[in-house]
TrEMBL record:
Gene3D superfamilies: Cobalamin-binding domain (3.40.50.280), Methionine synthase domain (1.10.1240.10). Residues 49-101 form the B12-binding domain. One of its GO terms (biological process) is tetrahydrofolate metabolic process. Keywords: Cobalt, Metal-binding, Methyltransferase, Transferase. One of its GO terms (molecular function) is metal ion binding. The lineage of its organism: Bacteria, Pseudomonadati, Pseudomonadota, Gammaproteobacteria, Enterobacterales. Its EC number is 2.1.1.13. GO terms for cellular component: cytosol. This is Methionine synthase. InterPro entries: Cbl-bd_cap, Cobalamin-bd, Cobalamin-bd_sf, Met_Synthase/Corrinoid, Meth_synthase_dom. Residues 1-47 form the B12-binding N-terminal domain. The gene is metH_3. It holds the Pfam family B12-binding_2.
């Protein structure tokens, strides 16, 4: 997590550019995927900090920020429901109302 903070700081200062941010996010996502079983094993049942619904709306294929936010929240004990990219608004609203995937 601290590494992504450094990436954010460098990007904000203009010392890192979008291609490097994208690569950093991909590496972090792979690392979290590898560590996921260990993260889940260390969590206590029912100790979720909350449930978060993520998606990009129909017409938007840019999911870099969504994916970074999802990884950060997941590492901080939030349950993430990720609907993906180009999701119709009615599906987002239905999922939010139903509380399911």
């Amino acid at each position: 997590m601290a590494g992504m903070n450094v990436v954010g700081d460098l990007f904000g200062e203009g010392k890192m550019f979008l291609p490097q941010v994208v690569k950093s996010a991909r590496v972090m996502k792979q690392a979290v995927a590898y560590l996921e079983p260990y993260i889940q094993a260390s969590k206590q049942q029912g100790s979720s900090a909350g449930k978060i619904l993520l998606a990009t709306v129909k017409g938007d294929v840019h999911d870099i920020g969504k994916n970074i936010v999802g990884v950060v929240l997941q590492c901080n004990n939030y349950e993430i429901i990720d609907l993906g990219v180009m999701v119709p608004t009615d599906k987002i609203l239905k999922t939010a109302r139903d509380g399911e995937r």
